Amino acid sequence: MTKKIKKILFVLCLCLTGSIKCYGALSLPNINIGMQNINTPQEFSQGVQILIMLTILTLAPSIIMMTTAFIRIVIVLSLTRQAIGTTTLPPNQVIVGLALILTFFVMSPTLSKINETAYQPYMKNTITQQQALDNSLLPIRDFMFKQTKESELALFVKLAKIEKPKTKKDVPTYVLIPSFVLSELKTAFKIGFVIFLPFLVIDLVVASVLVSMGMMFLPPTTIAMPFKLIMFVMVDGWFLITKSLIEGFIN
């Protein structure tokens, strides 16, 4: 179990460092706590590298969310909870936890490719660290390209004021990431709209019945919520939503 955890941490480190455009080889220096004067350019370079690594670790959660399936999954699950009307059930911890589990499930083929092309060769000393970083970035880019819409990609290519890419390799990572995020937001809200429709019909029916019975001061949500829960349970809502989310990434 410990070896698997080490592999996952190493793969995540490769993904995080690989998402930053590197112009030179980036080595991981030994970190020693202490105060001393910098006498050589090499010592200054090591200090800068330590600062870069600490910055990457600080931004790690955001980078993981912005380059994986987490965005779409957590938004759809949150909108589902909002549509049902239970604003605090399931709790945020459950929603985020389920989103993380589904994200690891969806990203498992990508992580396997990173393990085969970057982690294992690097551990066997057959490739350098820079090559491992480059190899780890390729599966992440392939995943993002599959989920990115052409309109969003064209928008950021235009805003970046670069030449129109002829192939996927010509698209810079700093252009691909915001295009992917925007595409995921659009897709998530489209799915959320479809989920909201049946619950909206229940709200309208309940509100119409209450008005016709003269109970205008009774909040419709109080009566509608049990019907929403019954319908959601009868159609096995969580199963259908989870299935649709995963199939949306696989297909």
Structural class: mainly alpha
Low-confidence stretches: 1-9, 14-28
Percent of residues in helices: over 70%
H/E series: HHHHHHHHHH
Shape: elongated
The count of strands amounts to 0
* Number of discrete helical segments: 10
- How many domain units? 1
Main sheet summary: none
Radius of gyration: 24 Å
Global mean pLDDT = 75
Strand content: under 5%
- The first-to-last residue Cα distance is 31 Å
Model description:
There is one protein chain. By secondary structure, the chain is an all-alpha fold. The chain has one domain (2-250). The chain is built from 10 helices and no strands. Helix 6 runs parallel beside helix 8. It is elongated, with a radius of gyration of 24 Å.
What secondary-structure arrangement, pairings included, does this model have?
Blueprint: H1 2-18, H2 41-58, H3 60-66, H4 70-84, H5 92-123, H6 129-147, H7 150-160, H8 173-212, H9 220-234, H10 237-250
Helix pairs in contact: 1-5, 1-6, 4-5, 4-8, 5-6, 6-8, 7-8, 8-9
